[in-house]
Amino acid sequence: QGLWSKAEELEVKVLERSKAILGEDHPETLTSMANLANTYWNQGLWSKAEELEVKVLERSKAILGEDHPHTLTSMENLAITYQYEGLWPKAEELEVKVLERRKAILGEDHPETLTSMANLASTYQYQGLWPKAEELQVKVLERCKATLGEDHPDTLSSMANLASTYRNQGLWPKAEELEVKALERSKAILGEDHPDTLSSMANLANTYRNQGLWPKAEEIEVKVLERRKAILH
User: Fold this and answer.
1) If DSSP states are collapsed to H, E and C, what string results for 206-227?
2) What is the rounded distance in angstroms from the CA atom of residue 80 to the CA atom of residue 42?
3) Interatomic CA distance for residues 182 and 18, integer angstroms
4) Residue 192 gets which letter from DSSP?
5) Residue 18: Cβ within 10 Å count
6) What pLDDT does residue 1 have?
7) Using CA atoms, how far apart are residues 197 and 182, in angstroms rounded to an integer?
8) Between helices 69-84 and 27-42, what is the axis angle to 10°?
9) Residue 41 and residue 53: Cα distance in Å, rounded?
10) What is the CATH number of the domain that holds 26?
């Protein structure tokens, strides 16, 4: 916290000087504004971050244009802040725009497009719009597999996200199928005791429980508990 406060103090000064010397619309002023917004964000000062991010976005649109990478990044940053404030419709509106533009400019399979797709899916999840989230997450997973490979961390994250959406819709067999795959790969790549592996195990146990497969659920839960105890000690 102390370091963020110091960073904030410096960045406020840099921004003031940049405005005075270079003007409100200079790229370096916008960068200073974005940096200060990020520091507010890391302190959980969402309203302050939002205020600056709105300004950065407005100026980026006016100076650089709607489709410039900096404008799209500014849009994405503001959308994430809206997410943290629980302003889901506002976040969704921006994320839809970012996704449309990135598809048009970068193509469906570009990593930044896939990130935008995953962000929008997350916003749908938080609003309980499970079919919409599922539709996007299926696409993200397919493209991650094709472009990054089955064992890439982003592919495993995509698998876990889609499994979560299946769980929330009560589609237990579909969730189980993905969770078994994610767990096998996580064990092989990250090891038995990695936090992500233990999370995968806990998710699978939960899915077994919800299908009434108590012995399977218990077996995994005992392993998770033993490993977590061993790691903590």
Assistant:
1) HHHHHCCCHHHHHHHHHHHHHH
2) 12
3) 48
4) T
5) 19
6) 56
7) 8
8) 20
9) 10
10) 1.25.40.10
Q: C-alpha distances in angstroms, 215 versus 12, 171, 202, 208, 224?
A: 58, 20, 14, 9, 14
Host H or E run for residue 25 = none
Walk along the chain (233 residues) in steps of 10 and give the mean pLDDT of each run.
85 95 93 95 95 96 94 96 96 98 96 95 96 97 94 92 96 97 93 92 96 96 92 80
Number of residues in the chain: 233
- 95, part of any domain: yes
The continuous run of DSSP H or E covering 44 comes out as none
Tell me the Cα Rg of the chain: 21
Measure Cα distances from 76 to 80, 92, 121, 183 in Å. Answer: 6, 10, 14, 31
The alpha helices in the chain, defined as continuous H runs, are 2-22, 27-42, 46-64, 69-84, 88-106, 111-126, 130-148, 153-168, 172-190, 195-210, 214-232
- Specify whether the CB–CB gap between 118 and 138 falls below 8 A: no
Domain total of the chain:
1
User: Domain range for residue 56?
Assistant: 1-126
State how far the Cα of 8 lies from the Cα of 175, in Å rounded to an integer: 44
Query: Helix (H, G, I), strand (E, B), or coil: what is residue 126?
Result: helix
Instruction: Report how far residue 61's alpha carbon sits from residue 82's, in angstroms, rounded to the nearest whole number.
Output: 19
